[in-house]
# Entry
Amino acid sequence: AEEGICQIYPVLIGLMGCGKSSIGKLLAAELGITFLDLDHYIVEKAGRTIPEIFAEVGEEGFRDLETKALREVLGTPVVLASGGGVVMRAENRAMLAAHAPVIWLKSSLHFLAGRIQGDENRPLTAGRDALTVLQQLAEIRYPYYTQCADYILHRGEMNKAQSLHAVIEYLR
Ligand code: S3P
# Structure
């Protein structure tokens, strides 16, 4: 394993709105490798948006595509931003557990709700109270995120730049 200068291919996990994509892009630039958003990868392959996929094949159909996508891209030289629900499948959790580093970007549910409320591109919360949905998701997913993560970044009041800095410190 001596190809490439950077051999650290971080995967970012966490609930919707936690900054996986925005911090992932900055991190990728910092590491000098490609940024890949798993949702974008799925959308490109399917030729449909996330809401369209949910409408046509339901959440389980989306999870099938997500699992297939994760299998295809995990381990390639990228910073990977996953979708918040990637930990729902045991198969995905096993893949993530076997990969390092997996980083959980953890923020307060109130902060996340404020970021995603009214976002029509997220079918799980569209037209619903985001905080209520996030509370339900957190109850199920926090044990899974804990199980998959090598590092938990508690963002607290940290902005994007500070969060990036903390992740880089961890990776050093
Ligand atoms: C989902 C999160 C979304 C997307 C889909 C389902 C989830 O990704 O995969 O809407 O189950 O939490 P983001 O976490 O990037 O919003």
